[in-house]
UniProtKB/TrEMBL annotation:
Belongs to the short-chain dehydrogenases/reductases (SDR) family. GO terms for molecular function: oxidoreductase activity, acting on the CH-OH group of donors, NAD or NADP as acceptor. It comes from the Bacteria. Keywords: Oxidoreductase. One of its GO terms (biological process) is fatty acid elongation. InterPro entries: KR_dom (IPR057326), NAD(P)-bd_dom_sf (IPR036291), Sc_DH/Rdtase_CS (IPR020904), SDR_fam (IPR002347). This is Oxidoreductase. PROSITE patterns: ADH_SHORT. Pfam families: adh_short_C2 (PF13561). Residues 5-181 form the Ketoreductase domain.
Length: 252
């Protein structure tokens, strides 16, 4: 049953974004499905009964907001999910990769949120930014991605303080290990899958819908007193540091 609300989800042509779109649609949201790929946006939109809003988040954020507004004249939620990763050591980063990563992962979040703010404010809406557990813990070869996502977390906290008086809540989600199309080459290897799964206290790799359910909560009235938070959805993986240290009485 429709709740009469519209949410714009970026990067929702597949992976985590599509999982978020599916859960939100199940909860009654009309999802404006954005993706840089028109075909992927249309595919997810058809699956969830939403509206395809294709486009590059770095190109014209205002146009994406206007396209979402065209659905019903209002915008009640924004999920900044679109992201890219460029791997490599910090000492050898290509400046073009730096610009591209910060452009999609951080600058687009800033620009799209600002474009959506007046409409979210009038609707008493909310923003959910998809960050990463990488914003909290270093990962070899992922320093640029981690820095961009740490920026998203800092931006989320600042926006929550500045925009709370305008009736807009802002939170971030930090996904852990999630099985998506992008990561399928890793998880299709049963040995690698098991090695990773064994590190996670809850005993499984996450699914895109795990992120979707938290996003749905944060966008809902049930989260009306929750703002400025970075919620890690990682099965407690980031809390296991000391579990790997030798303890008195351990045997080799």
């Amino acid at each position: 049953m429709s709740n009469g609300k519209v949410v714009l989800v970026t990067g929702a042509g597949g992976g985590i974004g599509a999982g978020i779109a599916r859960v939100l649609a199940e909860r009654g949201w009309h999802v404006a499905v954005n993706d840089v790929s028109s075909d992927d946006a249309a595919k997810t939109a058809a699956e969830v009964g939403g509206t395809a809003v294709p486009g590059d988040v770095t190109a014209d954020p205002a146009a994406l907001v206007e396209a979402a507004l065209a659905v019903s004249g209002s915008l009640d939620g924004l999920v900044n999910n679109a992201g890219i990763i460029r791997r490599g050591p910090l000492s050898a980063l290509d400046p073009a990769d730096v610009d591209a990563t910060l452009g999609v992962n951080l600058r687009a979040v800033v620009a799209l949120s600002a474009a959506a703010l007046p409409h979210l404010s009038s609707a008493g809406g909310a923003i959910v930014n998809i960050a990463s557990m990488a914003a909290e813990v270093p990962q070899l070869g992922g320093g640029l991605y981690a820095a961009s996502k740490a920026g998203v977390v800092a931006y989320t906290r600042q926006a929550a303080v500045e925009w709370g008086p305008q009736g807009v809540r802002v939170n971030a989600i930090g996904p852990g290990m999630i099985r998506t199309e992008m990561a399928e080459a890793v998880y299709a290897d049963p040995v690698m899958y098991e090695r990773r799964r064994a590190l996670i206290p809850v005993g499984r790799i996450g699914a895109p819908e795990d992120i979707g359910r938290v996003a749905a909560f944060l966008l809902s009235d049930d989260a009306g007193y929750v703002s400025g938070q970075h919620i890690l959805v990682d099965g407690a993986l980031t809390q296991t540091l000391m579990a790997h240290f030798p303890q008195p009485g351990d045997t080799a």
